[in-house]
TrEMBL record:
Residues 844-996 form the CBM3 domain. Signal peptide: none annotated. It comes from Paenibacillus vini. InterPro entries: 6-hairpin_glycosidase_sf, 6hp_glycosidase-like_sf, CBM2/CBM3_carb-bd_dom_sf, CBM3, CBM3_sf, FN3_dom, FN3_sf, Glyco_hydro_48F. This is Cellulose 1,4-beta-cellobiosidase.
């Protein structure tokens, strides 16, 4: 590979020196507590961090949400710059992880996760607003109704035909058992941050940001052809009486109001990947690490076919419904989606996976973290770790299968050919029964022609190569696959990447060799270059030829002699550059971790990474690293491309009628009968954008409709995409961390935040205290007072997050706070709690005993779950209709409640519950649920027990309970044991246990 002119120092070194001087003299941004930086790369990371977090830069909304871009007039995946994506949030996590590594301040990471949970994970985050209000009605034995996918938007809406019965969802039961409910803990992929569309947030109207969606109509529907619509559709907008649903699906009845969310699996996997590195770099707050584990638990839905059909069963055009994990391809599919009804008739819900897997969405680091004990993030569900271990190997095999003979990674595979489970054409290459697809999911433009879809995933493989090598695993098949894929890819990509020189191309973007010939593949091409100090160039697009050989295991892998790539269009995409540099950096570091020193290719990768970083810094305009982009596709703002069926008329959120009055007839060749509208027709507010007049003038004076060319110059824009800036910032940090050994030295320590979740439980001459650990806490000081608000006296300094105070007198009320400390100092005090110890009552004893257990280890969720057995210890039969149990708890916000008996050996229909408010409240109980039994429950013979009785309660608004201080709750009882705190009554008399 040719390396002339690559490693010259760029002109930006003067700026670096100035920044270093600023750090030394204390002039650096106030947001960074470092006194000085150890290297130019660390300096630049911290500078970019401050630029991103500076309100004047404009990266964040008033609600603290990262915009997709600072600028607003843009159309790519989001069709407006002030949207946000789950991708942006996942990059935010990564940014804060490395900031925590350099500064010791992990609070920014936690604040980012909290914001993510509040605005883009549609769950009740503690504000009482249910954003998945009917998920409890989901039937895992009938997840969804089949509707075919089509090759053109004009063929939609698609009939909900049920032609293929959905298979069974094998995850729902264990997720409900693990977390107490099945509300999906994943990000929805797209949010209208400033409510630009105007739909509003129906289920949480206090939020300006609103859940929305765009792509819904097959592989050809680009951003230019999509109809934005609300994810919470009560039919206030769209077609009267139908909302937007009838643009996408057709059914026999009028569609019901509904909510629906779509997850992009790569984004959630990236967030988990970031939390893995946080843990590796010293972050230790289990509260947030467990949130990442929970996200990984639900992310397994990305491993399943869209309608839970058996993998490979549709190769002949006749799919078979899955009965469990035979519907799992164990890859990261393009999406998962779930939804349900709204309003009084909304007692239904659904869920789908996705049949299409793209190589660019796989994340082997997340799979490793979620499966390997060394990864440290194995989720709580019983089969999650095993599933992710299978996925890790399957993803590495997937990359090996898709790697071209040159080294680039081809598209992916599908379990539903043409989106309709069609029979595979003769000669189709397969991977575990799935069909090869060179451009999975979308074709405008083809989904695997962008070089970013190479840099993103291979950077993650390079990370895994580094992780395994650092852990001493240099022989496993997983290691061999990771190393081979990334080594081949780096060797290929470096032939087409340049710093301080510019590759020579022809007018169509093909690289040329020194003889002026097009380079159309092959190994080690000699690309012609010209000197260009301070510039960087990497590929933009790829063309594909041939197909991989069918997969038959790594030991039988052929190297794909019939699969080739043509590399094209050198460009200056800053975000892709950041990912590419990280791929080179982790690869170089991995070769050193494996061998003790850099390999020859590793050394070249490290030097190219350094030169690209230096060159990129010269493009920092004070807001971020960016280049001018020609946008030849922006003529499509003015084209009529958005399909509406004939007779479909409605209202958009910006107040305009859609499709409007200036439509044109649709093209019959595309299979529809309707009209086309333009981007402007659907979203008229774009014409008020500050950049609109520039674009409109350029279109009117330069666009040639006959030649379809920009005769007088292509419109050019300078964009500051959030994800791109984070990719560049983290590239500097990772190079410094892995190559320079940076970030591991002393930093100005940061005191921890105040502990949260302090709970006090009174006992007999004792008070038990528990609290959550804030990041960075090394010790805790427990303080007590006899008056609310103090003054407090220090009573203990400990390292654990629990303490029992035995120095108390019964019937006296005590008040407690706790502070956290480390070498930097102490936190503020926690919120105050109180408790009044009392003499333990003498339990009632009789012929009945109540045994109790719970699988609800989350003391702060929206349901209380308990299981009981009633034992007859006497010598006479007892009618269960004469027995009542009481379970005491605190309601934590008085709301209407619901009782459920999920299972009872005596018949769940024979079990009922009555809510009773305790006034005045007792310690650990301001409510109890009284459980009684109908005549059909029968009687208990002497020595017999009732069998298992599983009950569950929730508030009708699904707000959380705080169970840790509940009188009858004991999270440690995972097996049945006698439990005096669930009293039993026979004919109204207490015969077992104690009351609070």
């Amino acid at each position: 590979m040719k390396r002339s002119n690559v490693f010259r120092k760029p002109l930006s070194l003067a700026l670096t020196a100035a920044l270093l001087f600023s750090l030394i003299t204390g002039v650096f941004g106030a947001g960074t507590p470092k006194a000085m930086a150890a290297s130019p790369e660390e300096t630049r990371f911290l500078q970019l961090y401050d630029q991103l977090k500076d309100p004047a830069s404009g990266y964040f909304s008033p609600e603290g949400i990262p915009y997709h871009a600072v600028e607003t007039l843009m159309s790519e995946a989001p069709d407006y710059g002030h949207m946000t994506t789950s991708e942006a949030y996942s990059y935010w996590m990564w940014l804060e992880v490395l900031y925590g590594h350099y500064t010791g301040d992990w609070s920014k990471l936690e604040e980012a996760w909290d914001n993510m949970e509040k605005y883009i994970i549609p769950v009740n985050e503690g504000d009482g607003k249910e954003e998945q209000p009917t998920m409890s009605y989901y039937n895992p034995n009938s997840p969804a109704t089949y509707a075919a996918e089509y090759d053109q938007p004009d063929k939609y809406p698609s009939q909900l035909s049920g032609q293929y019965a959905a298979g069974k969802d094998p995850l729902d039961a264990e997720l409900k058992a693990t977390y107490g409910n099945n509300q999906t803990y994943l990000m929805h992929w797209l949010v209208d941050v400033d409510n630009w569309y105007g739909f509003g947030n129906l289920l949480n109207p206090s939020h300006t940001a609103a859940y929305v969606n765009t792509f819904q109509r097959g592989e050809q529907e680009s951003v230019w052809e999509a109809v934005p619509h609300p994810s919470q559709d009560d039919k206030s907008f769209g077609k009267p009486g139908e909302g937007f649903m009838t643009l996408f699906t057709k059914e026999s009845n009028t569609p019901a109001p509904q909510w629906r969310y779509t997850n992009a699996t790569d984004a959630d996997a990236r967030a988990i990947q970031a939390m893995y590195w946080a843990k590796e770099l010293g972050y230790d707050n289990e509260v947030y690490l467990q949130k990442a584990e929970k996200m990984g638990d639900y992310l397994r839905y990305g491993m399943y076919d869209k309608y839970f059909q058996q993998i490979g069963s549709a190769s002949d055009g006749s799919p078979s419904a899955g009965t469990g994990k035979d519907a799992a391809h164990y890859l990261m599919a393009w999406y998962t989606a779930w939804g349900g009804g709204l309003g009084s008739t909304g007692n239904w819900a659904w869920r789908i996976g996705a049949s299409h897997a793209h190589q660019g969405y796989q994340n082997v680091v997340a799979a490793y973290a979620l499966s390997d004990p060394e990864g440290g993030l194995i989720p709580s569900s019983p089969t999650a770790g095993t599933d992710w271990a299978t996925s890790l190997k399957r993803q590495l095999e997937f990359y090996s299968w898709l790697q071209s003979s040159e080294g680039a990674i081809a598209g992916g595979a599908t379990n539903s050919y043409d989106g309709a489970y069609k029979a595979y054409p003769a000669g189709t290459s397969t991977f575990y029964g799935m069909a090869y697809d060179d451009a999975p999911v979308y074709h405008d433009p083809p989904s695997n022609n962008w070089f970013g879809m190479q840099a993103w995933p291979v950077e993650r493989i390079a990370e895994l190569y580094y992780i395994l090598a650092s852990n001493g695993d240099t022989s496993s098949e997983n290691f061999q696959m990771a190393k081979q894929v990334v080594e081949n890819w780096v060797d290929w990509s470096m032939d087409y990447a340049f710093a301080n020189s510019r590759p020579v191309t022809d007018s169509e973007g093909y690289y040329l060799d020194q003889q002026g010939n097009r380079v159309l593949g092959g190994n080690d091409p000699q690309i012609d270059t010209v000197s260009a100090p301070g510039e960087f160039w990497i590929p933009s697009n790829l063309e594909w030829q041939g197909k991989p050989d069918s997969w038959n295991g790594f030991s039988n892998h052929t190297g794909n002699p019939g699969l080739h790539v043509v590399t094209k269009n050198p460009g200056q995409d800053a975000g892709v550059l950041g990912s590419y540099i990280k791929a080179l950096t982790f690869f170089a570091a991995a070769t050193k971790a494996e061998n003790g020193s850099y390999s020859a290719l590793g050394s070249q990768a490290e030097q190219l990474a350094k030169s690209l970083l230096d060159a990129a810094w010269g493009y920092n305009d004070g807001v971020g690293i960016t280049t001018v982009e020609p946008r030849s596709d922006y003529y499509r703002y003015f084209m009529k491309e958005i399909y509406f069926p004939n007779g479909w008329n409605g209202t958009f959120g910006q107040g305009n009628a859609i499709p409007g009055s200036s439509t044109v007839p649709s093209d019959p060749a595309k299979g529809g009968d309707g009209v086309y509208a333009s981007y402007i027709d659907v979203r008229p507010e774009i014409t008020n954008d500050p950049a609109w007049s520039y674009l409109e003038n350029k279109f009117n004076t330069s666009w040639n409709p006959q030649t379809k060319q920009w005769d007088n110059g292509t419109p050019e824009f300078t964009y500051h995409r959030f994800w791109s800036q984070v990719d560049m910032a983290t590239a500097y940090a990772e190079y410094d961390r892995l190559i320079n050994g940076g970030g591991g030295g002393p930093v100005e320590p940061v005191a921890p935040k105040a502990p949260t979740g302090l709970k006090a439980t009174a006992g007999d001459a004792q008070v038990g205290l528990t609290w959550n650990k804030p990041a960075g806490a090394e010790s805790y000081t427990v303080k007590r007072a006899t008056l609310s608000g103090g003054p407090y006296t220090d009573i203990a300094t400990i390292s654990e997050t629990a303490y029992t105070d035995f120095d108390v007198v019964n019937n006296t009320t005590y008040y407690y706070v706790v502070s956290a400390g480390n070498a930097a100092g102490s936190s503020p005090d926690s919120a105050e709690v109180s408790a009044t110890p009392t003499e333990a009552p003498i339990p009632a004893e009789g012929d009945l005993t109540v045994q109790y257990r719970t699988n609800d280890n989350n003391a702060n969720d929206n349901q209380i779950r308990a299981q009981f057995k009633i034992v007859n210890n006497g010598d006479e039969a007892i009618a269960l209709s004469d027995v009542k149990l009481r379970y005491y708890y605190t309601i934590d916000g008085d709301k209407a409640q619901q009782f459920h008996c999920d299972y009872a050996a005596i018949g769940s229909g024979n079990v009922s519950g009555t809510f009773v408010k305790v006034d005045p409240a007792l310690p650990g109980g301001d409510y109890y649920i009284e459980i009684s039994f109908g005549a059909g429950a029968g009687s208990l013979a002497p020595g017999a027990d009732s069998g298992e009785i599983q009950v569950r309660i929730n508030k009708t608004d699904w707000t959380n309970y705080a169970e840790a201080d509940d009188f009858s709750y004991d999270s440690t009882k995972s097996a049945y044991a006698d439990w005096e705190r669930v009293p039993a009554y026979l004919n109204g008399s207490l015969v077992w246990g104690i009351e609070p």
